[in-house]
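Request: Not sure, any thoughts?
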Amino acid sequence: MVAVDISPNQDGGVLKEIIKEGVGDETPAPGSNVMVHYTGTLMDGTKTDSSKDRNAPFQFKLKKGEVIKAWDIGVATMKRGEVAMLTCAPKYAYGQKGCPPDIPENATLKFEIEMIDWKGEDLSPDKDGSIERYQITPGNGHMKDPEEGALVNVHLTGMYNDKIFEDRDVSFSLGEGENCGVIEGVEIALESFKAGEKSRLKIKSKYAFKNAGKPEFDIPANATVEYIVELKSFERTVKPWLLTFDEKITQSKMFKEKGTNYFKADKYSLAIKMYKKVISFLDQDECKEDLKILERNNLILAAHLNLALCYLKTDQNVEAKDACNKALKLSSQNEKALFRRGQAYLALASPEIALKDFQEVLKIDPTNTAAAKQISACNNLIKKQLTKEKKLYANMFDKFAQEDKQKEEEKLRGQPDVMCGALGEWGQEERPGGRDATAFEKENPNILMLNANGTDEFQNM
């Protein structure tokens, strides 16, 4: 085929000639992890490098500046299985300096490239491929990506097995999508979107509907789903350092109220996010007015106490304990903090420590019946643990005794038994004078008749 100018400015800087047609219509999107084989040569045919010679395909992220410009331009136009020759002018390759010693100054290069395959851009937090992005339309690259808390306006099209299960416009604060039925994987991906971007997302179950599935959408457990997501617009989140102290107080009260509403709706993960925002907005703030300091500390104290309650509800007992410790630094005799820390210790199978917290609660308020019940629960658990330990130790000692007995028996079995076998039975050589056994001795082989012949051989003893 004839070489075609594919350079952005049509300046002849990147010429592409297709040697072998690829399969399908899809080409890799920016950010895709592509896998290719290549052979590079100078214009006189001198080979500079080859992945085929190493028998190792080359992988890189497309349009992330990991390769020369000509590659980012040319590979983006290739289909799976396609083989193409790229002729790359110096300014799209290694420029005036070249890449000594193999590539001289101002070198025009030729690359034969085979597109093997590609995967979407990995947006998953653990980089395990659980959220892949395939960009359809790039967004406004001059704008920053939306951050958690930003109000986003998006269009979502969800698909499973090529069947659409949702198609809607939705607006929500990033990080609170659960309240609108937006899956976690979409929210995570949106933090990498530009305004106006449209992309296809492939999301594995851990960031989608997990092992519960979505029966109303006919989505089974542990299913991978796809979404077409368009970020139409977003409003930036409020930055704490741009606010006055009073504005921070107002904003924190809003977060606290939202957290309480989420808690009442059993949406504990969202409630946790809101209470953490209260702390992040106020924790580092300095103020010299006593009343304002008191209001600030009360909000932070309430946030820690509510976090502890959310953690207890979600069986995150270590986190609950830590939240209570932080609350107690602000209010050392706080009943709720002591009580909830006691609950956390009890859930962590530490009734002796929990007991002290519940006893402290009763010292503060002797009428606290809930603490009294927990004290009873602690004592019962301690008693059960002691009984279990005694039984365990008893069984352990019995086991050790049995093992010692077995060892002693094995030791005895290893010693000669004088009452059995050739040594234990009276043989002829053991009888006085080597005489034959009497009839009585034959019937009773372990008895020796010393004077079986009626002689007086022992009369002088």
Q: What stands out?
A: The chain has three domains: 4-117, 131-235, 240-377. Residues 239 and 281 are 9 Å apart (CA to CA). Residues 419-429, 457-461 have pLDDT under 50 and may be disordered.
